[in-house]
Each structure stands twice: as C-alpha cells, then as structure tokens.
Design goal:
The protein has about 240 residues and is mostly helical. The protein contains 12 helices and 3 strands, in the order H-H-H-H-H-E-E-E-H-H-H-H-H-H-H. The chain has helices at about 5-10, 15-30, 60-70, 75-85, 90-95, 125-135, 140, 160-170, 180-195, 200-205, 210-215, 220-235, and strands at about 100, 105-110, 120-125.
C-alpha cells in the first residue's frame, strides 16, 4: 500500500522528534489495531494464584540469553531484542531499519496499545546488540533504500515469533508462567524498576499510567533483597 501520502512520508526530515512522529504515522497505517481487554479483566500482577513468578530472575534471564545463542542469527537477535527492550512481540516485529538509531544506541517502538495517540518510545539497548543488528541486517545499506528502510526486519507472524521464544525457554530449562514472551516483558520491567526511576520505566514500557508500572515493585526473593540493598547503600 504505497499511496502518495506514504511516499511523501519517506522524504520527511530526520530530526529525532520528526522521525518519531513520522514512524508513528507510518506504522499506524499498516499495523492492526490493539485488542480491547474485557471489562471484567483482572488487575495485572507479577505472580500467579499459586504464588509463582511471571518474570525471570537474574540467573534465569542469563540462561535465556545463553540458550538464545543456539538459534540461527535472526531468531536469536529477535529473542534478545525482546529481552533487552521489554517490547511486545507485535512491536518487535514492526521494527524497521529506521527504527534503530545506531548513533544513540536506541530502538523506537510504536506503542500498539495506545495506537490512537501514536506514541513512539525510544529504548536504549546494548551496543553489542546494535552492532549485531547492523551487521546481520545490513542496516547501513537498507537505510539508503526508500523501500527497505521502512520494511520490517523480521517477516514472521506472531505465532512464529512466539514459537522461537518458547524454543529458547525450553532449551534454557525454563517453564511456567514466566517462560513466554510476556515473561520477558515482565523480566525487563522488574530489572528496570530496580535501576531507574519509575517514570522512565513507564516511558520505556509504554504504560499510560504510572499505577500500571508500579506492579514491577511487587517482587519476591532475590529481587526484593536487591530493593532492600539499595536502601542500605544510602544509609
């Protein structure tokens, strides 16, 4: 669907602010709308009814990263992008060469659940991941092409992406509620909540309300201990 309006967007200025607005407009044209939650949906929590965690702890997260290395390059990079950014599967699949700011070391995601307001958020990712994405997808060349710079890096369906994540979880010996793509998002949220101010976590995860972000303080075990250690360091 390469309409005249879409073609004109390709020649928009590339300042950071304009680039984000341009990206939001482009993705909003081609991506499906978000699913609405039922009116009686339960409040989000990081634990199951039986008390199990819905997020990976630090050791499990490391096992996931190691197991991801057993996949071919493109699936491995997608799994690592989910782990390091906390993005949703659909948001990760929407990434294009222009989504990645190689100089700043960030990836721009359109917050799909807030599509009507076209919110684009930039999330820092490790320099090593930026370098691999640049090499594997030849971003330098793709950015110069008017078509490929707006083409998705991963041409998969959601179910295919889901299966890759589940394969890595299985190879890492992980199971339960945390061993799924949503678990990686929760894992990122918990780790970020321990390291940066809540309002930044809110922006990175694309939450409309800080109350939603607050669930990432509801941790147990080693993660709870780390919260306490932060207090002790300041006393």
């Amino acid at each position: 669907m390469r309409s005249n309006s879409l073609k004109s967007l390709l020649h928009s200025p590339k300042t950071a602010k304009t680039r984000h607005k341009w990206l939001a407009t482009l993705l909003a044209k081609v991506l499906p709308g978000p699913k609405r939650k039922p009116a009686n949906s339960q409040p989000m929590t990081l634990h199951t009814v039986g008390g199990g965690r819905k997020y990976l702890n630090a050791g499990e997260r490391q096992r996931f990263a190691v197991a991801a290395g057993t996949l071919p390059l493109e699936p491995r990079l997608f799994c690592l992008l989910l782990m390091w950014s906390g993005c949703r599967i659909s948001e990760g699949l929407a990434v294009t060469p222009l989504s990645i700011d190689r100089d700043a070391g960030t990836v721009a995601f359109l917050t799909l659940k807030r599509r009507r307001s076209a919110v684009v958020r930039q999330i820092p990712i490790p320099a090593s991941l930026v370098a691999e994405l640049t090499t594997v997808f030849d971003l330098t060349t793709r950015e110069k092409d008017s078509y490929f710079r707006t083409a998705r890096l991963w041409h998969w369906s959601r179910s295919t992406a889901w299966r890759y994540v589940k394969v890595v979880m299985k190879r890492a010996g992980l199971s339960g509620s945390a061993a799924m793509p949503k678990g990686l998002r929760h894992t990122f949220g918990v780790a970020a909540f321990q390291a940066v101010p809540p309002h930044i976590v809110q922006r990175w995860l694309g939450h409309a309300s800080l109350r939603t972000t607050g669930i990432y303080g509801d941790v147990s075990g080693r993660e709870e201990q780390q919260f306490a250690e932060r207090i002790w360091e300041n006393w």
